[in-house]
Amino acid sequence: MEVEQFLKDQAKLQLQPVYVITGSEDYLHRKAGKALKHQILAGNEDLGLGSFVGDKTSFAEVREELTTLSFFGGKRLAWVEQADDFVSKNRPALEKYFQAPSSNGVLILETSSWPSNTKLSKMLAKEALITCEAPSRKESLVAWCIAQGKNIHDKPLANDAANLLVELIGPDLGRLDQEIAKLACYAADNPKINAKDVDMLVGQGHVEKVWVLFDHIGQGNQRAAFQLLFELFEQGEEPMKLLGAFSSHLRKLAYAGRFAMQDKPMAFALEKAGFFSFTKTSAEAQLRKIGRKKINKVLTWLIETDTGMKGGSQIPPKTLMERLLAMLCSK
User: Could you tell me the pTM of the whole model?
Assistant: First the structure.
């Protein structure tokens, strides 16, 4: 069961003796764990919780925690973090425990994975397996950010703001939530968080600077474009953060280019790509200067540059950014 579905249904689900919280998204792990801890201990967290690290504890210690009577009544909670090795080393003992769990406590195992073909997996109740994975599609991440702003931080995000935030941060829900929390304070006097807020607070003005750089490209002033890039490097700007702003802008241009190639009016193509009315003139100039042939290669260039910066190339990140700009400016 995915964590959001579990949280939605938690009140009507029967409490289980064993839970497994699994997956790669730490933020969702913490969210599921907090909800379970509140349900099981009901205010007695300080005295009813036994925390263990999987590779530093034995099954006997965990079992003792589970079978000990709670001082204030109710159930005890034994929480094993990083439990992958713990499960592997204690599989036979856990299988016996799954068959006859203690009525005094609840066991939570936090793992990075939980293979479905094991005996333990088949013994675990369906509603006791909580999966924690970030959305894989950008559209889903954008929707998650918008919902998080509205429901958790009481501050709506404009769609373009959520798009830019995902471009800058990526599929890290913990960081996205932290940035949304900061943005909610930053834009406290505004009805909603807009893309300008995201650029200034999260992107540190990178998007605005990159727009100026692309304006130079649109005007055919390659020298000024490279000069601005070098100035940004000299000011200490990190290539990876600049690439995030490049990526956000180029993806919109590529999207508009595809519509234009389908014989759609340019104004329509730019609007569908997310350009505001007051930016359409310069965006159109940028798109025409880059040209149809190169716009079809933009997404491939972005992936290659991103992969290179993350260890896929021995070329320095600054040089990779310079190469990307050179390809955009080439004839």
Answer: 0.65
